[in-house]
Design goal:
Blueprint lengths: L2 E5 L15 E3 L6 E8 L2 E7 L14 H10 L4 E10 L9 E3 L2 E3 L23 E4 L7 H14 L3 E3 L2 E4 L8 H9 L2 E5 L2 H10 L4 E10 L11 H28 L7 E4 L4
Parallel strand pairs: 1-4, 1-5, 5-12, 6-9, 7-10, 10-11
Antiparallel strand pairs: 2-3, 3-4, 5-11, 6-12, 8-13
Helix pairs in contact: 1-4, 2-5
Length: 267
Amino acid sequence: MAIAVITGSGTYALPGFDAPDPAAVKTPFGPVEVSQGRFAGVDVLHVSRHGAGHARLSNHVNHRANIWALNELGVSAVIGCTACGAVDPGLELGSLVVFDDLHFAANRLPDGALCTFCIQPGDPRRGHWILHGGPFSDGVRTALLAAAAESGHPARDGGVYGHVDGPRFNTPAEIAQLAGCGVVAVSQTGGPETVLCGELELPFALVGFVTDYANEVVPGEPTPVAKLIELMGSSPAVFADVLRGAVTRLAAEAPAPAGTMYRFEQG
């Protein structure tokens, strides 16, 4: 079975990915462009959240369509890659984080709808995603951490990912509040992907590349926009290095999803 990779800001194509141009996949939530090909000797499906040229801001990303399409195409695991802003000042710019928890209190999609596939009363697949442990698949996390170490890009093992609404960045007060909840880094797309993969019982994990310090994390010293852009430009190669090892590990041993999706008509 194929492994799916979702990339974000700065990574609009996956370096070293042997695939034809993206093809449109129809879903009940709209069409999705998916590239299918070979990467590191493994069948891989790639979705660029924002599209070429960053056509879609975070508030334009159709998360339900993206995750539905990957599930319909039969992937066995999903890796999300995100450029992120550090809330923990101990994180170094250009470093990686493999998150183990999620702060996504609003649980809403960019259009304001609740973040769920359970949208019709009586749907036989309706249910609750029950989280014991963290919201990310242990197997996918383990593959990412091992691949990061092997590739010479060691990653922080664990930390709370904070989903924030875009497209604006956050105020100092908002960042301070998130820090108080234990959030180590933030971005604008990982929350819905985590929840929707959980509902479809798709093993999912999220790896972040730190491009800047969030507002007033380093008091009086905002990360220059030029530095953020420079780091974002270097992120595709780093992600590709880590993904090569991760997808081969996941292809060799299928991971389990996080939590339990309790469906009322399926026990």
